[in-house]
Amino acid sequence: MDSPWEEDPRADYAPEADWAKLSNEFTNSGYREGIIAGKESALQEGFDAGFAHVGVPIGRDLGSMRGIISAIASFLSSKSQEDPTTLTTAREISSSLAGIRFSDIVPVDQEAEQHAREHLDANDDLIEQSEELLQKREMEGLEDMLQRLTAGATSRPLQGRPTREDVIRLKEGILTLCDQLGLDVTP
Fold this sequence. Notes:
mainly alpha; 6 helices; 0% strand; elongated; cytoplasm; nucleus; Essential_protein_Yae1_N; Protein YAE1; Yae1-like
């Protein structure tokens, strides 16, 4: 080899380099896919547990209460009665229940909040909110405003979003109405 330009001194090395690069890319790709699959599996397990132990029971209870009070209000409005306060009470409970969102009464997920706090940068004071969450909150604000403007809404002054304690109070109101009407109903 008289001239450095005649032959590539690493001609035998090129296929090995390609093989090493290809092997490295497959290893990295497999690693990423494994991480993604692990995250998806953990997410699915968390969703399943939350759905079964939180979402379904709360949704069923709230739906049952809404159905019972709607039936009572419908029954009372179709019946001529001497005491209109019972119908008014039923309508107020129904209106209050209609304004409750799942997010208002679901228990706080302490584990998720702790996880979020752990992953904040040292300089961050607040968790950044995604665009989707901001849009959801904006829509909920519009829904709240619309409910305050809706005819037949309760005259109770707005004191923030309903809580689980409010739901318990409304459930007690339904049971009281059922007792007054002689109904054996369990919301």
